[in-house]
Amino acid sequence: MKDLTHIYSEKEFQLTAKKFKDKYQIDNNCDKTKNNNNANKWKIFKDDFLRLTHFKCPICEKDIDNYDDIDHYRPKKYYDFLKCDYQNFIILCNICNRTCKGEDFPLLDNRFKAKCKDDICNEKPLLINPCVDNIYDYFSIEFVQSNSEQLLILVPKYELNPNSYEYKKAETTIAFYGLGDCIIGKDLKRCRDNKIVDNCRREFMQRMYGTFYDLIESFDDYANKKITKEEIMKKAEVKKRLNYGFYEFIRLKQFRINTI
Question: What is the reported pTM?
Answer without folding.
Answer: 0.88
